Amino acid sequence: MTKKEPVILVTNDDGITAPGIRALIEAVKSLGRIVVVAPDSPQSGKGHAITIGVPLRLNEVDIFEGIEAWQCSGTPVDCVKLARDKILHGKPDICVSGINHGANHSINVIYSGTMSAAMEAAIEGIPSVGFSYLEYSYEADFSLPKEIAHKVTKKMLESDLPAGSLFNVNIPVVSKKEFKGLRMSRQADAKWVEEFDERRDPHGKKYYWLTGEFKNRDSGDDTDVWALENNYASIVPVQFDLTNYSLKKKLAEDWKDL
């Protein structure tokens, strides 16, 4: 009996015309039937936002030769929801998101539209992964990220993963000769120390630009930040259950008089 071809949902947050999503399609198209549903404009930093109160638009586009592709007026999470309900009428075998232009390591996973799209699929029980490349230029060389995306996606399809398995993969900007491989990691205790640059427009009214400096407070050699600084690609298994189990256990005793 012929094995059923897996359905691979491809999405992102940089928009359907971004070079990163084209690179991701090229990386995984030999692994199954590709269906693309992605935002019609950049949605970076949208996190897990969904569209409420305004209608969503979904239009089929012919921009990837031989690939079914749709652009959506909403957020990355909207794209995954609409793909499941209106395009695929069911669950794909896997969801791959990216390849994002820029890092999504450490605390960035909370803000990332790339990872939130993958997380939405994982919430539906779909094995999912987000890929991010620490190169912001749209002229970036995606040859190494494509190899990694193919390898990880293939491994996920071949593995008996629990429902809703979710991975965050970040890729350093290094030559193939300098690249040391994939490293299973944990999320670093690192964050942006933010400030708002206050300016005035020609009418004298104030406006603000968000600025900041990235601070790594984690000295561990098992983190995603360490891996990337040492020429590894990091792969972090992620969960959407935000329960602090150790604190829950402690407070069950300390606060039992509530």
UniProtKB/TrEMBL annotation:
Q: Enumerate the UniProt keywords alphabetically.
A: Cytoplasm, Hydrolase, Metal-binding, Nucleotide-binding
Enzyme's top EC category: hydrolase
Cell compartment(s), UniProt = Cytoplasm
Record-annotated Survival protein SurE-like phosphatase/nucleotidase domain positions: 8-193
Q: Which cofactor does it need?
A: a divalent metal cation; Mg(2+)
Q: List the HAMAP family hit by this protein, alphabetically.
A: SurE
Q: Under what name is this protein listed?
A: 5'-nucleotidase SurE
Q: Which organism is it from?
A: Chitinophaga silvatica
